[in-house]
């Protein structure tokens, strides 16, 4: 098949990128979950959690982490009813990031004012017997 505007052959994206699917073929829960995982990963990077010494990570940027965590909170909160079994783990990951942000902040936010808490409500402190693992 030839595109009449460019005289170039047209191929499906499946042919050009084997293993990739058209966005229209991906169920909404998977699109939402992928976006949430990307926000989770980017937030962890910006908190420095991927490095052995988070405080000295070259990627640590708490302002950027705040924005990413807030976006994640909005997405997870708004889409929780559609996520089914994915909702719980995403909420737990979000709360872990919110706690890590609180622990990393030199000047802690007021209770309920941390990143994403306007969407999730106040995130309780980590229990004393929780090692964070």
Give me the count of strands. Answer: 0
Beta-strand portion reads under 5%
Low-confidence runs of at least 5 consecutive residues: none
Q: What structural category characterises the helix and strand content?
A: mainly alpha
Over the alpha carbons, how many angstroms does the gyration radius reach?
19 Å
Query: Main β-sheet: number of strands, strand sense, barrel status?
Result: none
Integer average pLDDT: 86
Number of helices: 5
Which sequence of SSEs, written as H and E, runs from N to C?
HHHHH
Q: Alpha-carbon distance between the termini? A: 55 Å
Provide the number of structural domains.
1
Share in helix: 40-55%
Specify the overall morphology.
globular
Brief rundown of the structure:
InterPro entries: DUF1844. The chain is mainly α and 133 residues long. It has helices spanning 13-16, 28-46, 62-83, 87-104, 117-120.
Please explain how this structure is put together.
The protein has 133 residues and is an all-alpha fold. It has one domain (26-119). The protein is 50% helix and 0% strand. The chain contains five helices and no strands. Helix 3 (62-83) runs antiparallel to helix 4. The protein is globular, with a radius of gyration of 19 Å.
Defining traits:
133 residues, mainly alpha, 50% helix
Write the layout of secondary structure elements.
Blueprint lengths: L12 H4 L11 H19 L15 H22 L3 H18 L12 H4 L13
Helix pairs in contact: 2-3, 2-4, 3-4
